[in-house]
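JOB MANIFEST
job_type = single_chain_structure
chain_count = 1
residues = 112
[input]
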Amino acid sequence: MEQYSSPLDGIFQALADPTRRSVLARLGRGPASISDLAEPFDMALPSFMKHIHFLEGSGLIRTEKQGRVRTCTIEKSRFAAIEAWMSEQRALWEGRTDRLEQFVISAENKEK
């Protein structure tokens, strides 16, 4: 689990904000310019750019500037780290609940 600590901290911190999750949801449909991404949010562009920089810093998106337009693209490989961690946690908890179920069934059978 230590292998995930540092990158996952940044990823989950990035995902903790609803604006950043909305940006990622929009980028899930394809690349978009900063101005297109900022349009639905009622905030100044410098404030919105802080979210973009945070997402870029966590590695969830990358940006590319062509002329005066900066385009954002989702970085799918970073989501693989989340999926691996979630799968590990799911397996751990499924194992625990399976053992609990066996314990309860065994206890019920002893009472009979």
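[summary]
The mean pLDDT is 92.
The longest strand covers residues 61-66.
exit_status = 0
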